[in-house]
Amino acid sequence: MTTGAQALLKTLADAGIEVCFSNPGTSEMHFVAALDHEPRMRAVLTLFEGVASGAADGYARMSGKPAATLLHLGCGLGNALANLHNARRARVPLLNIVGDHATTHMRYDAQLQSDIETVARNVSPGFVRTSRSSAELCRDAVDAIAAARGLPHQVATLILPADVSWSEGAQPCATPAAAAPAGIDGEAVRGIAKAITSGARTALLLGGGALREAGLLAAARVAARHGVLLLAETFPTRLERGAGLPRVERLAYLAELVQVQLAGVQHLVLVDAKSPVSFFAYPGRPSDLLPEGCIVHTLCGPAQDAVQGLAALVDALGAGESAPALQGAQRPPAPRGRLTAAKVCKAVGHLLPERAILIDEAITSGLMLGVLTAGAPRHDLLTLTGGAIGQALPNAIGAAIACPDRPVLALVGDGAAMYTIQSLWTMAREQLDITAIVFNNASYSVLNVELDRVGAAAARGKARAQLDLDQPRLDFARLAQGMGVHGVRAETADDLIKALRYALETPGPHLIEAMVPESLGKAKRRLLPWLLRSLPRLPRSLQRTLKARIAP
Amino acid sequence: MTTGAQALLKTLADAGIEVCFSNPGTSEMHFVAALDHEPRMRAVLTLFEGVASGAADGYARMSGKPAATLLHLGCGLGNALANLHNARRARVPLLNIVGDHATTHMRYDAQLQSDIETVARNVSPGFVRTSRSSAELCRDAVDAIAAARGLPHQVATLILPADVSWSEGAQPCATPAAAAPAGIDGEAVRGIAKAITSGARTALLLGGGALREAGLLAAARVAARHGVLLLAETFPTRLERGAGLPRVERLAYLAELVQVQLAGVQHLVLVDAKSPVSFFAYPGRPSDLLPEGCIVHTLCGPAQDAVQGLAALVDALGAGESAPALQGAQRPPAPRGRLTAAKVCKAVGHLLPERAILIDEAITSGLMLGVLTAGAPRHDLLTLTGGAIGQALPNAIGAAIACPDRPVLALVGDGAAMYTIQSLWTMAREQLDITAIVFNNASYSVLNVELDRVGAAAARGKARAQLDLDQPRLDFARLAQGMGVHGVRAETADDLIKALRYALETPGPHLIEAMVPESLGKAKRRLLPWLLRSLPRLPRSLQRTLKARIAP
Predict the structure, then answer these.
(1) Distance in Å, alpha carbon of A6 to nearest chain B alpha carbon
(2) What is the pLDDT averaged over residues B353-361?
(3) What domains are there in chain A, each with its CATH number?
(4) pTM, to two decimals
(5) Are B196 and B230 in contact (CB under 8 A)?
(6) Do A460 and B428 touch (CB under 8 A)?
(7) Is ipTM > 0.85 here?
């Protein structure tokens, strides 16, 4: 006889779902027991659900297909929510399996009971379903998988009551192949081609699927032929970059800089990207960052194939034979002396191995990362798509499991690292080839900037103390050791280079704690709001210089 | 001019809300800046929102009044959700302030935007409101505070858009005193008195407010006069116990044991407690744990005053002069030799200081805690009210802040500790007198029991591996050191006694990692389901003996 859980696991494996990032409780015990019957399913235990969800996100970004999470009722889902939000914004396919009380138990409102569906809707607006019986379970699962991997991809949530899991009589179901993407609108392509050839200043804003090699090459052909500006969204899900690939400039996080980047653009073409808006709102400043009078065109959205859209545009423009400008190979020299955040980025640029997966949640400390790794060997860059911090370490787990033959580097701020620090244990348990670099500047540095930017600059002791992480200063090397990960502290650039070399040469996970001063000292922090305000009025050449120092 | 945030903080402080457990982001920067203008508000920074919510829960349990949390949009609320669930089940007053994007920014669906209200409903079904303007903000806050501290207490959620926070023209408002509790139903009291005096076997099931000294004494007078059985709910919010107080038996976590505890009870009187149901459902077993034919009476519910209800019952029964049976002073001797979980509990019983606050999230390792601390000096016991693990360490922070002159001991399983391990940093930062004892048995031990109980006993390697926390074994002493807390590992009972003495004598936070074997070895684990099944058929004296070994 087949239990619901056994049939569900077979259904998942048949659909190509091969990894489950789990943190189970009692209501998931039959699912756990059924793992023994499905050799195709790898179960990766995490100590906190936010690690499981962030790992599933990273896995999907690199494999292109969904992993499952296994979560324990509403509380487990709550713990997973922040990284599921990042996954939703990354538009990756992901399948949550959330255990619930047995259907017969629900009316008693036992301690752990809560309204799971309402929580799930926050991250799974497109698909939340509670399976009602073992007989229906696998059909429900098929619908959930189809929802997750249809276009646009999404986070689907299947709620699995304990008795639906343990009862017999379930039948595995086959999941149909995902539907083809919606076609490209020829009319839109012609309109965009016309705008581009009109001579007006035009930019392509690339996002989602446009940021992989094929899309980048097509966009670069258009740029080579017609001089359009190539931009990428601020927080890409997965950006292929480095030597031999076209280089695109990412829109900055700071709205003031975006306005400089977009200045004079008359036509903005969205390629699986959103029209640019400010990350946060600021008193007296616009949220919409489009230059006045700029006309927005949509080449394709998330339900379409961005590469197909760009190919159509290349055709329409006769740019097929144009040679795209490619980034040359170029590495910064090894940094020396006193350690700073920029020197850490320099060391990464100096040593980044071939085919690395680079995950950037370094917030202010990573400001120079883009510039300093631009000519490094070709790599994938994963970023904080939804702004919910605590993404990099879990993402690294999923990326390493999706691509076991590729080195993974996660760069993360001290504040961000602490949200999902439990990730380190799973890295050790699975012996993943991950090097985590934590920038220890003992501060929520970005908030010190933001406190000034929102106009609350007079803040004194008690307010500023809310942004400081000293007293006591965290010791990440020790935290790593406490979870079985090789952890070292780097106080100088030479320490860092040595530690990074060792980490990249030695299999298994490593954590390097880079002791850096706050990226923006007090003086710079005061200067920044003024500088940002003044930026659009500065001469264009100075704007460019400054931009290169502050843009990603 | 007064900003919304400034007026809000004054409104909170005027209402007696004096502590804010925070983890802010950009949208909360004006609230943070306003802290400088309200000297009555203490802001306690946490590195993870689940620490903030668990601390607010612990604070409310010990102070009887709400603290505020300060959370960053839907993701911050998600991270806080598990411990808010515990707070909801604890029925404590608590006020979430969740920052949101500016109202003018919402239509742009920027990265961090999500449906906050839908998440909030999971833990705040009674009060969720998004404030729409600075002019309305303080009235909204007053409604939220009134909802939180009205009876039954609840978790109220006020969503604060950034522009409502930063705009001027707000006016602080005064919060009216909380309404008096609903009166006691005289008819119900007479019916219960009649049942008690009928000679039928009757039990009082005490919960909520009935578990403090006044309620316990009244209940014990009834018991002394009429021989009724005194029981407490399984997971009390706050139970006063120890030498000099009446002793009540808590209902067990294991349904099989509850059935033994309730065997033969013909009338069950609920005093601010729920009729007993199984924590989880198990195949082929009932969820409702009432004995057949047992009549349930409700003396009072959470909207009433349990002490008043019990006083009315004492009056109706003429039990006012009866001498309640009180627990004598009695401590176990110091344990020696090889360390086990029971010996850790023995050490706690041996050394528990006067007026301690004892927090129990030790799950299987704490099995003997109740028995071994029963005669210790009077103390408060806080437990895992909602079953969402990760509660003890944050609760300890809140309890220590509410009661700075009382020692706090948090006993926590290794698995549970990892969900909110970031708590240690806040303990160090605030230099709180907390001793955390982590039982390191390298296992989700309770799940090993549950895997067998749900009938999934055949589970082999891959399934069992989901419950094991070795490979690598966590090093909690090092984790504590990494967050600035004095941490030591105890390998023997003598180590433990020495470490515990030192921790209790030395101000500031301490973590003691107790290296214990899995509480239930393989053989015992196999035996347990059989034993539980057989229990009701064993002779009553043997049942009692066994119960004393397995009940809390």
Answers:
(1) 12
(2) 98
(3) 4-166 (3.40.50.970), 186-317 (3.40.50.1220), 341-520 (3.40.50.970)
(4) 0.96
(5) no
(6) no
(7) yes
- Which of A67-81, A115-129, A266-280, B527-541 has the lowest average pLDDT? B527-541
Of B78, B281, B466, the CB nearest to A81: B78
Quick: pLDDT tens for B85-100: 999 999 999 999 999 9
Question: What is the token pair recorded at A150?
Answer: 């249809």
What is the nearest CA distance from B13 to chain A, expressed in angstroms?
Answer: 16
* CA closest to B452 among chain A residues: A29
What is the predicted pLDDT for the residue at A467? 87
Q: What is the token pair recorded at A247? A: 């280089």
Of the partner residues B428, B429, B450, the one whose CB lies closest to the CB of residue A26: B450
Contacts of B9 (CB under 8 A, 6+ apart): B31, B34, B35, B37, B38, B41
- Alpha-carbon distances of B110 from A279, A385, B170, rounded to whole Å: 6, 11, 27
pLDDT above 70 for B524: no
**Six-digit token string for A181:** 């993407």
Cα(B345)–Cα(B552) distance, integer angstroms: 12
Q: Which helix (H) or strand (E) holds B216?
A: helix B213-226
What are the tens digits of pLDDT across the range B386-437?
999 999 999 999 999 999 999 999 999 999 999 999 999 999 999 999 999 9
- The rounded percent of chain B whose pLDDT value lies above 70 is 95
Interface test with A, best of B9, B31, B81 (most A CBs within 10 A): B81
Q: Which two tokens stand for residue B363?
A: 């799950």
Count how many Cα atoms sit within 13 Å of the Cα of residue B134 in the half-sphere of its side chain: 21
The answer, yes or no, to whether residue B319 has pLDDT greater than 50, is: yes
pLDDT at B552: 45
Helices assigned H by DSSP within B15-48? 29-34
Q: Measured between CA atoms, how close is B317 to chain A, in angstroms? A: 32
A379-383 and B249-250 beta bridge pairing:
unpaired
Pairing verdict, β B239-241 and B379-383: antiparallel
Residue B364 has pLDDT above 90, yes or no: no
Could you say which DSSP state residue B205 is in? Answer: E
Residue B410 is classified by DSSP as: E
Do B80 and B50 form a contact (C-beta atoms < 8 A)? yes
